[in-house]
Amino acid sequence: MNEMFAARGLRLLAATIVVVNGFVPAVWILLTSLKTEVELVGRPITYLPHHPVLDNYVRAFTDQPLLKYLGNSFAVAMMSTAASLIVAACAAYAIARLNLRRRQLILTCIVASSMFPLVTLLVPIFETMRTLNLLNTYTALVLPYTVLNLPVCTLVLVSFFQSIPRDLENAAMIDGCTRLGALVRVVIPLAAPGVFTAGILGFVNAWDEFLLALSLNSSASMRTLPVGISLYQGEFAFPWPTISAALIVAIVPIAVLIAVFQERVVGGLTQGGLKG
Amino acid sequence: MKLDRFKDPGEKTLAAMLLAPAFVLLVLVVVYPIGRLLWNSFFDLRLSGGGAKFVGLQNYLNAMQDADFWNATWNTVLITLITVPGALVVGLCLALLANLPFKRRWPVRLALLLPWALPLAFVGLIFAWFFHTEFGVVNDILRRLFGAEPTMWLLTPRLAFTAICGAIIWKTSSFMALILLAGLQMIPKSLYEAAEVDGASRWQQFSQITIPMLMPSIVVALIFRTITALQTFDIPVTMTHGGPGHSTQTLAMLIHATTIDYMNVGYGSTLAVLMFVLSLFVTGFYLKRIGRNA
Hints:
The complex is a heterodimer.
Chain A: H1 2-33, H2 37-40, H3 55-63, H4 66-97, H5 103-112, H6 118-131, H7 138-163, H8 166-174, H9 179-190, H10 192-208, H11 211-216, H12 225-230, H13 240-260, H14 262-275
Chain B: H1 2-7, H2 11-40, E1 43-44, E2 53-54, H3 58-64, H4 67-98, H5 106-117, H6 120-130, H7 137-146, H8 157-185, H9 189-197, H10 202-230, H11 234-240, H12 251-261, H13 265-293
Antiparallel strand pairs in B: 1-2
């Protein structure tokens, strides 16, 4: 009995360590964002806000075009994820289902592209986008992000396609569907969870990207969230109260997304990781 | 006639049609830039004006004598050598803790997912706030525990480097933990039961069963982590901007500054080629080791 109690205590301790480690930075920023500026620069520092206020959130939106950054991040992440899914779904279907001689090699080629350091691609991409007058447009980011997400989307979708019984597809083709028809009517609907998983991973990747966003879209109206917030300038010092409020605004959508779909995200991540 | 063929193309045509978009994109965004990069590295090319002038290997010779290049390379290698094993150890601990049989799994899982999902740039900002000299929580805890005077973490070269490594390890260990946790859950329980019957101690079970069975996951996690560590950019940029001086500047930051800020595309390309070679070298080393083990 005692031993069982001890084991439960130990489990609780283990869970606490993991949870505290994961949440402390976000919680600390949340607490910071609720403090008044006066409280924030007082010594010694306080832990819980004395009089929680939402002023910082108001200022996060009025001092800087935070709404614009949010919109940019959403637009870029959505468009690149959608494009990536379409291209990856086509490639993954061919790799998983069609009679290809070098399917492993083709998959390796696609996955190997993620091994190239992004910063080495940055220089020519910057030069090309500049020549084409595409700097500070959505296209400048959507195109590279689509390619950046191809490997993980393709990996996740290949294993989903492989898990769908071939008989279902064959039955549809016997019933008069073409191969493309069977793909659209049978395989894609059945692979919807996979498409969704790959989509979340791609969305998070695009939402988080910093190097290209900073280099290609630096004009104030085209910044994505990570770039916009890290370039916040205060009048005198780095405006920590507004920054922490902006960070919370930027973290919430992604936190909700992974909280709701955590099993899928973990499945997709480890699948992509272990097969790659 | 033509329409029919479009409706149900042969298997080979269909495969080519389906694979084409992916390969066109890869050529446009990966293959062409790599070629372009190599080509540019032999030119004196500045976007600020003036045409491209072929200079042969001069850019490479300049890089070899560029103190900034060696400083950034050394910082990048050091960050890799510190944060990759660091994230592995922390990630393994987190994975072992998270693998205990909890009744409710979601808080633990979310705690591992959140650091993964946070943008690196945000992690840099948050840790810069942690290590703030006057209002940072780190100095406050040190003061409460030891009565220590405020430390200027991000304004002292070695301490700034340490703080950056700490932030990187925190951010990346959770992805490690997720991969390792999946590996742990694939180890058959019967192995431990058999070991128990044979009288193996906890430590023997860990070192003789857990670690060897986990090896494939560890290798995968290490490869991913090393490749990303060599590209370290976001966290030092948001924490220190490479400072104080150039003490925390990485290769990626130097390439970014040379190309985007100074518009020196020729020299920036040369630095990028050198970085490319470095990462090929490291990836090759890993693949060779895997080949030997397999």
